[in-house]
Each structure stands twice: as C-alpha cells, then as structure tokens.
Write the structure tokens for this entry.
Amino acid sequence: MKNKYRMFRSGKSGYYYWQDNDTGKQGTLGTSDNREAQRLLSARNESWSMPATAINLQIARAYLNAADPKLVSRTWQEVMEELVALKRGTNGLRWERAIHDHSFDSIRRLPLIETRSDHFLKVLQEGKVSSNVYLRRIHNFALAMDWLLKPVIPKASWPKVSFKAKRAITTDEHCRIVEREKNPERRAFYQLCWHLGGSQMDVANLTAEDVDWSDQSISYEREKLKNSEGREIKPPLIRFGEQVASVLRLLPQAGPLFPRLREVQSKDRANEFRQRCQGLGIKGVSLHSYRYAWAERARKAGYPERFAQEALGHNSKAVHRAYAKKAEVVIDSLEQWEHKMKEKVVEVEFTPANPAKVGTQPEPAAGSGG
C-alpha cells in the first residue's frame, strides 16, 4: 500500500520534514534524529491508513502514556480540584460553589484527551453566564499546565459572555426598603450600604475599630483583595457626615458592627434583600446595586473622580467609570463655568483671612523708634 507521507531532510537546519504525496503539503517533524523522525512519520502514515477514531485514539494513548501517564487518565473534575486548591479566601469560596454547577456534570468524569468541542458546547447550552465564564478559566488553566494538547474550542469561537443589565437602586426604592425593614441590624446595614457604597461583604464585616470618630472617617480592607499578593492596594477611606454618624451610634461600639449579618453567607444576605424587594414590587436590583447607586450619585453631584475611586477602593479609572456610566449629568456651558470660576476668585481675593483684625494696624515693637 502506498504511503500517504514521505520524509526528507533540510540541508540548512538538519531537521526532518514530512510531505503529503498527493497534495505536496509539507510540515516539520520537529527533530534532527533519523530514528525519531522515522517513528513520527510511521505514526502519521499509520493514522492515515487506519482512519477509525478508536484505533487512532489507542495509538495516541500509547504515545502519551509513555510521556506522562496522567495525560491519558486526567479528568475535568481533577482539573477543577487542582484549580480550586490554588485559590484562597473569598475567591476560593466562589470557586468551590462554581465547580458544583450542575451544567459541568456531563464532563466531570470525561478524560481531557477524549474531550471534543461538542462536549463543551453542551455545557454552555445547559449552563448560565457564570458557567461560560468559569468553563473558560478551567479550560485555559488546563492549557497553561500543558494538560491539553490543543484548545477544545478556539479562543475566537467561544460564545460571547453577555451579563444581564445592572442598574443602581434609586433614592425612592432605598427609602421604601428602609422604612419597611423592622430588623434594626438589617435596617442599619442597608443604610450604610447606601452611604458608603461598599460591597455587601465589606459592609457586613465592618467593625467599630474601622471607625475613626476623631476625623469622622471609616477605613477597611476589602475582603475581595485581601489575598492579592504583590499588589499594593490602598484600603477605602471614607469620611462620613451626620446621617452616617446617627446610624453608627445605634450599632455596637466595640467589635463587629453587624454581629449576626457577618456570620451569614453572601448568598443568604442577597436572598433576604431580594425577598424584601419582591414584597415592595422592586425589580432589577441586588445588594450590589447600592455600589452602582453610590458611584452614580457621586458623579451626578460633581464629586471628583479621584475621591470616588478612593472611596470605592478602586485604582482604575475604567472600573469606576463602569460603575458610573449611567449617571445623568448636566454639564455647564464653558461660559457658565468661566463665570463661576471668576466669582470664586473674587470671593477668595476679598474675603479676609481674619475678619476680626480688618482695619487694625499692629502695635509697633518697643524700641523700634516707629
């Protein structure tokens, strides 16, 4: 039987190449060793002469097993477990929940070497947006660890991740939620979410020691970023006014501000909030909507962006703009802005630093002869 491929050697590089006898297409065998090149060429001709998938897979397994036995038997469940083992803190908890997604059940025991694109497409069809996000990360982790010989789905062919539209909670909605809430701890929690713009986990974990009454400020380390090694991230520093002060006075003056809520899982706090919104007929918001609301209020009020970044705990302008992109802002004309600036300059120039001393002259020093 005529072979599909033949072999030749490059005079310049010394490497061996294969050539398709029918089409003339060529490719490298990746070696300058004649024996190894002959084996690779034989495998290529053998795979062509026996096109049955099962036979080819057995041949591939024999080669791979000699190189690394785990390459043949490693399943996607093992990949998930290895990935979760590298995560810490709240990020680790999120991954623990993510890998229990039922849409992954069809591939858990599937060896990586047997995975086809239709296996992944089934997961994506049955799963949610989060299934798409986490499956990509699991797939990329396996590629980076050289556990996959090639991508299961090419990067450009993955279905686009489309998150649901998110919006900020309005002032009216917040007031209705607070007015109806009978539990004092939960009511105070919603009020601080509104005034501080923190994530629900960060606000729930606040302690009395995070509050500095001397300059009326709150500073805390974000739970999400506690395990960010090698990154210098400033903790949020937020000054508060009388409304926040009145809420803080009702809370414990030592230890956790929300002793019960901090022991509750994030999903349970979110469910409680969702139930209250449903009872009021409020749709399309979550606890994270308080964070959007704070940023939009800040932009609408003309609050400097750098101050908003400090308060929200983000160094990136792009991140903050993503939170505030829907804020409605009325921009003055340049003429109006110049007029306001002139008024401020005049006010500064003619406002005395110490009105009590206006019109008085300092007494001459003794012996000055003045």
Strands lie at 5-9, 16-20, 26-28, 211-212, 217-219, 237-239. The mean pLDDT is 80. Residues 73-157 form one domain. The first helix runs from residue 34 to 49.
